[in-house]
Inverse folding.
């Protein structure tokens, strides 16, 4: 599915979020305090938006991991002119082809919902992080505010699939997005799952009244 929608993925992200998704990604990088000595894993990296932000902050190395070859091809285009060394790897989060304790930071943006076995993925991220390493999870999560939730769900479940389906010519993919969010766990549940793999929950940052949430964890 992600291979099919890769050609229009960035365009639709910008259109459907009015560019707000970029602001959320920049804030996530701020919270992680990525700098020149950072070795970063971008899990479910997609077309490389978050990897690109890490490179702009001067990260020493970025590993972009995603199971979609078409997404990775577009990520390579974004990262090829950065000084940061970047390695793009076609793989799943449940079995990372990286050595233990090699990364100082790890992150995943709007991808943890698509991981089939989250406990395995959390354990793998824990394994590849150095002690003290930071892991940020940016994701859409169920909201508590009824009015905001009603408005968001109207847009997300009724309007977004129509626009996304028309432009990408793949209505199924853009029906999947709101359905996967509706079925997903709360941010508190997600933090608890990560704690079961050994992480300490450091901070939760809420964006746009709860439409998206960044959970900051530490090894």
């Amino acid at each position: 599915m992600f291979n099919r929608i890769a050609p229009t993925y960035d365009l639709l992200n910008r259109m459907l979020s009015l560019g707000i998704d970029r602001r959320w990604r920049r804030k996530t990088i701020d919270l992680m305090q990525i700098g020149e000595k950072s070795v970063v894993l971008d899990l479910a990296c997609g077309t490389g938006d978050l990897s690109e932000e890490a490179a702009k902050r001067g990260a020493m190395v970025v590993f972009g991991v995603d199971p979609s070859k078409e997404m990775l091809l577009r990520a390579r285009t974004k990262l090829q002119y950065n000084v940061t060394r970047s390695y793009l790897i076609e793989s799943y989060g449940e079995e990372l082809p990286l050595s233990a304790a090699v990364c100082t930071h790890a992150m995943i943006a709007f991808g943890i919902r698509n991981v089939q076995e989250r406990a395995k993925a959390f354990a793998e991220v824990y394994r590849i992080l150095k002690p003290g390493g930071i892991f940020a999870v940016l994701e859409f999560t169920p909201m508590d505010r009824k009015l905001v939730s009603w408005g968001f769900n109207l847009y997300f479940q009724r309007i977004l699939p129509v626009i996304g389906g028309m432009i990408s010519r793949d209505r199924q993919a853009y029906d999947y997005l709101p359905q996967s969010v509706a079925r997903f766990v709360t941010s508190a549940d997600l933090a608890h799952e990560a704690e079961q793999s050994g992480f300490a929950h450091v901070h939760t940052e809420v964006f746009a009244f709860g439409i998206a949430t960044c959970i900051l964890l530490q090894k």
Remarks:
- The helical segments are 2-17, 20-32, 49-56, 69-79, 118-128, 146-168, 171-182, 187-196.
- The longest helix spans residues 146-168.
- The CA atoms of residues 52 and 79 lie 6 Å apart.
- The beta strands are 39-43, 61-66, 85-90, 103-109, 129-140, 200-207, 212-218.
